[in-house]
Design brief:
- Helix 15 (339-350) links the parallel strand 12 (331-334) and strand 13.
- The strands form 2 sheets. Strands 3-2-1-4-5-6-7-8 form an 8-stranded mixed sheet, sandwiched between helices.
- By secondary structure, the protein is an alpha/beta fold.
- The protein has helices at residues 13-16, 22-30, 41-53, 86-97, 115-118, 132-145, 172-175, 187-190, 194-213, 242-248, 268-271, 278-285, 299-304, 318-321, 339-350, 362-369, and strands at 33-37, 57-61, 102-106, 124-127, 149-155, 158-164, 222-227, 232-237, 275-276, 292-295, 311-312, 331-334, 356-359.
């Protein structure tokens, strides 16, 4: 079905002249179908923004009705909407702003059971809900469908915004691997400054537009963290643990050289003789014949903290670069928490390194028990 939004409309004149945006970007928006989970504080900023910028089709998912306590931050709704379904109220707000937008309403909870059905035909999903279950369901379904997810949260005086896109090598489980048992802090328990929702929602809408049009650099592998009390925004980088890549049997990008599959680490009891605690490693490094320290973390991690004199080969490159190491030398591998280093140790042992070991607990254990002044992450 052809979009009802006219990308050549004078309405979008200020977007047409944007460098790198132009008529192609506007056409991409008009042809796009975006699903927004949540018509609350974040959704109230995201949904009108996407409608106004020219997105052709919007699906809105929310099971709730408007409550009086929502009004300070959920500005898509008004006093007259109290008691109405949020999807209906938000749809009315869109119609007043951009009546040509095609609207699809789902007055239900977004769950793992209905995720794939709701995402049928969708180009991008935005999660502005306050449900951690919806976040993980959206992430997993989007990963399976190969579409990006823009996510955000706003609680208290702070907000976080990020992008998950599994087919581009990063998703929400790379940041938080396991779904917690509850939703943690909530607006009801902690409160929220209404303007934080507006800031986060605007950032989320901007990420959606960037992804749909191809302009700019999306927040892949980075979380934008906003603090309203200081007015500062900082960035937290993260990356996919190569151990997860092995577990998930993720395909190798065409541009890279295939790496040999790394074996599983030995069972805990068998690996004890090949493990150093942080204090034990500190003593060994002071000895007459200190071991070679092999750091298998990523660049951004080493920039935060590292052990002096380390040789660094990121875990994903170990298979192709193992020849840079002397198999006869004593080697101690370390990473952040000891997971990647355990897998790397198993690979080194298989490759003929008879004097290899790893740092149990990783550099985090070192900071906790040997160097309390070390930066932690």
């Amino acid at each position: 079905m052809a979009p009802r939004v006219d990308p050549s409309s004078r309405r979008f004149a200020r977007q047409h002249v944007l460098a790198g945006f132009g008529s192609d970007g506007q056409r991409a928006l008009a042809e796009a179908h975006v699903l927004v989970i949540g018509a609350g504080g974040l959704g109230s900023a995201v949904i009108p923004a996407l409608a106004a910028v020219g997105v052709g089709t919007l699906s809105i998912v929310d099971p709730d009705t408007v409550d009086e306590t929502n009004l300070p931050r959920q500005t898509a709704h008004g006093v007259a909407d109290i008691g109405r379904l949020k999807v209906d109220s938000a749809a009315n707000a869109v119609t007043r702003l951009a009546p040509e937008v095609t609207l699809i309403r789902h007055s239900e909870l977004f769950t793992a059971e209905n995720a794939v059905e709701l995402l049928d035909g969708v180009d991008l999903v935005v999660d502005g809900s306050d449900s951690i279950g919806a976040r993980y369901a959206a992430n997993d379904a989007a990963a399976g469908l190969g579409i990006p997810l823009v996510w955000g949260s706003a609680v208290g005086f702070g907000a976080q915004v990020g992008v998950a896109w599994d087919s581009r090598g990063i998703d929400y489980r790379d940041l938080f691997p396991e779904q917690p048992n509850d939703d943690g802090d909530s607006c009801e328990l902690t409160g929220v400054l209404p303007m934080v929702c507006g800031v986060a929602g605007a950032m989320m809408a901007a990420e959606a537009v960037k992804l749909l049009t191809g302009v700019g650099e999306p927040l892949l592998g980075r979380v934008a963290v906003y603090d309203a009390l200081s007015g500062r925004t900082r960035e937290v980088p993260y990356s996919r643990d190569p151990a997860r890549v092995m577990t998930d049997a993720a395909p190798t990008p065409p541009s890279s050289v295939p790496e040999p599959a790394l074996p599983e680490p030995a069972a805990a009891g068998a690996a004890d003789s090949r493990s150093y605690s942080a204090p034990e490693l500190a003593v060994a490094l002071e000895g007459a014949h200190p071991p070679v320290l092999l750091d298998v973390r990523e660049d951004w991690e080493a920039a935060i903290a590292e052990l002096p004199g380390s040789v660094r080969i990121p875990f994903g490159q170990l298979g192709s670069r193992v020849g840079e190491l002397d198999p006869a030398a004593p080697v101690v591998v370390y990473c952040h928490l000891g997971v990647r280093s355990a897998h790397a140790l198993a690979f080194l042992e298989q490759s003929g390194f008879s004097h290899a070991a790893h740092l149990a607990g990783g550099i985090e254990a070192w900071a906790a028990s040997v160097d309390p002044g070390m930066r932690r992450y």
